[in-house]
Amino acid sequence: MTELSPAAQAVMDAWWNDSKDNRSGIAAALRAVVNQIEVIPLYRNPVDAAVHHTQMKIQKQLISIADELDGTNE
How many CB atoms lie within 10 A of CB 61? Predict the structure, then answer.
């Protein structure tokens, strides 16, 4: 098997190390993906601001899915 990039390895490790069941492993992998998103700084430039807010929204949505899989958003 070919060697994985550090980002891909982090996601794989999160799933593998927390795969007590499929849900918790998937949730851990999603959180690892969120940790790989490099959010651009929020500048006064409207384009940068829009990208920043979109990135933050994506992160929140992924964390929400992970929380649901873990049963921690009840």
Answer: 12
Domain ranges for the chain: 6-70
Per-residue model confidence as pLDDT tens digits over 1-10: 678 788 888 8
Find the DSSP H helices in the chain: 6-17, 22-36, 46-70
Q: What is the pLDDT of residues 20-46, one digit of tens each?
A: 667 788 888 888 889 888 877 777 778
Overall average pLDDT of the 51-58 stretch: 88
Q: Specify burial of residue 32 (Cβ count, 10 A radius: 0-12, 13-18, 19+).
A: buried
For residue 5, which phi and psi values (nearest 5 degrees)? -65, 160
